[in-house]
Design a protein that fits this description.
This protein has 176 residues and is mainly β. The protein contains two helices and five strands. Among the domains are: 64 residues, no CATH class; 48 residues, no CATH class. A five-stranded antiparallel beta sheet has the order 1-2-3-4-5, with no helix packed on it.
Length: 176
């Protein structure tokens, strides 16, 4: 059986129909009951809330969007917004349209160990210049100009026949 609810611990303050604060909320949510939560609603019934659950998780919810703006008075080299996870992962998820955009004059991605990029379909790199700099740079492609010698689809298809790579390469150049 779940924990027994104690409505005597719950405290609510309402500031009209658009704002309410609940402390020690007894309503069970996804992360348990609330230590506190601030609710709000617009005239068009667009709702938002933020609060902390009894498990210590902070939640920010909005029916429309959430905007974080900082740095108006910060110096040019200052870090205006910092997101830190002291013990665990950080996940950014776009549920419906799946589009995540990162924009800036200079974007640096730094990994202390490995960096993995996985795409379900195509990965497109567009730039004036693309430099691959590493102790070992390899390709495991079966087609295209980065496919290793002897590993392309056509080379594998004609492997063991009298058709050599020189004939295949010449034929591909004519068709393209």
């Amino acid at each position: 059986m779940g924990r027994e609810l104690d409505y005597n611990r719950e405290f609510k303050v309402s500031y009209g129909p658009a704002c309410r604060i609940t402390v020690n909320g007894q309503a069970m949510g996804y992360s348990g009951t609330d230590a506190y939560r601030i609710y709000g609603a617009t005239d068009d019934n667009k709702k938002y809330s933020f609060g902390v659950t009894q498990s210590g998780k902070m939640e920010i919810n909005s029916d429309v969007s959430i905007e974080i703006v900082a740095g108006e008075e910060n110096g040019k080299k200052g870090e205006d917004i910092v997101i830190t996870s002291r013990n665990g992962n950080i996940s950014i998820v776009a549920d419906k349209n799946g589009c995540i955009k990162i924009k800036g004059a200079h974007i640096a991605i730094e990994a202390a160990e490995d960096l993995e990029i996985t795409a379900g379909n195509d990965m497109i790199l567009t730039a004036t210049k693309i430099l691959l700099d590493g102790n070992t740079v390899s390709s495991d492609a079966i087609d295209g100009n980065l496919a290793p010698e002897g590993k392309t689809f056509l080379e594998k298809a004609f492997e063991g026949t009298f058709v050599g790579n020189d004939v295949l390469k010449d034929k591909l150049k004519q068709d393209c």
